[in-house]
Amino acid sequence: MNEKAFQQIINYSILFIIFIFPLFFLPLTQEFFLTNKLYLISFTALFFLLISTIKFAFTKKINWQKGIFDNLLVLFLLSLMISIVLSSPNKIQAVLNPNFGLLTFFSLTIIYFYLSRVSFNLYLSLSISSLFLSILTIVFFFQPFKNIDLPQSLLFLKTPNFTPIGSQLDLAIFLGFFTLVNLLQILKQEQNNEKLKNKSLLLNTFSLTLLLTALSLTLYSLLKPIYTNSNQFQSVLTNLPPFRLSWYAAVEILKNPITAFFGIGVDNFSSIFTRVKDIAYNQSPLWQIYSFNYSRSAILHIFTETGILGFIAFTIIFISIVKKLISNSSNKFKPVLKLSFAYLFMSLLLFPPSLITWFLLFLMMAQLSHKEIAHVPSSNNEINLNNLLPFYIITIFTSFIFIGVIGYLLARSYLSEIYFKKALDGMVKNNAKETYDNMRQAVILNPYIERYRINFSQLNLLLANNIANKVNQNKDNQKTQKLSEQDRQSISQAIQAAINEGKATITLNSQKALNWENLAQIYRSIINTTQGADIWTISAYQRAIVADPQNPTYRLNLGGIYYSLGNFEEATKIFEQAVVLKPDWPNAYY
Fold first, then answer.
1. pLDDT tens track for 509-525
2. Predicted confidence (pLDDT) at residue 300 exceeds the cutoff of 60
3. pTM for the full model?
4. What would the pLDDT profile of 284-298 be if each residue is shown by its tens digit?
5. What count of Cα atoms within 13 Å lies in the side-chain half-sphere of residue 190?
6. What gap in Å lies between CA 246 and CA 252, rounded to an integer?
7. From CA 540, how far away is CA 534, in angstroms rounded?
8. Taking the alpha carbons of 314, 319, 183, 126 in that order, is the dihedral positive or negative?
9. Which residues are paired to 64 by β-bridges?
């Protein structure tokens, strides 16, 4: 194969990925949308590297075109890696975070390198995708499958807010972006042929009408009031983390030199959010959401999780984009790119980090970088290794090993998501064996995901309770009066497994209050049967309170433990603290 054939494979792959990305989802994982989009771009990045490696094996040449954002993106990746190594408690989960994780930015950076070297308009492919997305948005708004019997695996199609892109907020950002692009193209349209100009205007007007209609329906879904049980009206946007607390979280990291420079750690925002919550938050409709995984602003999120180092790296990228946009070089797409970047920056400033927003930003940077590469011949470099056989063999071998290892790890990670989804489906079908086997397999394949461990611990606890309940039911029916030795052994093994999984979750991240609450619930369930469980329960709730000091629920539960143990004085103190934290909560007074 010649170089041209390899380049054509990459070019067609780029067009396909850009087109399919917003529409891609698979009901194979717990979360259908972002999880699958993450693995799509990850495997795409590896595929591009594999094609380049095979091309290098045939040609023995390395061709490299230097782009204006190449070094800056590598610098940002390094800042993420440093934050994960020095600050993130759960490093694997930090790598796999879809909206702000190392895998996301590594994959987007690799794809950016290839996007910025192609000569066609990348917006065109994504614009076509946006039209398909608009049509789907309009169709599903009217719930076409509402009165149709669908199999369990397709029930998600009945959801009025279903969209292949993921959330309604991501959909609004995406549609708003291409509504703006389409409008600017109509206003800046230049065509010498009057007939072609009229056809182009008609096509763009039709596209704009579709986009505006879909965007209007999406904004209605986002802003429409939802009546809650607490006699309050909310909307989807009101369930975002407050700006005030997001700002407090960003300021909080400055109190410690390590977190100031390297952040609280990628995938660890929830631990600092619980520390900065105040009593005012408990009076809001959000108080039952104990924590958020993302800041209200993507810019604040970068600063909070990666510290000054990551924020500086991102700021340099931002300044470089601005300088490139205001440069004097002629570019007919410059007005579109300027307003597109302004739109994306406002999205990053006002809303949480999102894989969709990052994808659009990297696409725009690729467009800008391509213009620079095309006009600067000196940016093209070529290294011929015909006379350096040892270096050639080492490069080939290292590249294949890297791609193979990363591909294997990604496949294991994705397979664990599939098994986890199967386990949840087994719970719906009340199939205990299927649920247990699939949950166990998910943990084996990727033991670093906290939600796997928490669910597996609760599943083992449920199995122990089910065995005990069956024995009690038989006792009521006078079939048997005591546990068999096998039942005792099964209950003991299930309880021990639940405890081990709860402790494993704490090991993965001891800074999260929810992990301590899970362990406390496990010990609480065995207080009456296991000596010393009361002490461990109290200790776990106390650690949860330390991690989330403004949470009245933890204090109410801890007070309930003291009350059941007959320690009424301590119970009274804890209940009074719960009342102080949330004075309008009847449960605390009761």
1. 999 999 999 999 999 99
2. yes
3. 0.90
4. 888 888 999 999 999
5. 3
6. 10
7. 10
8. negative
9. 381
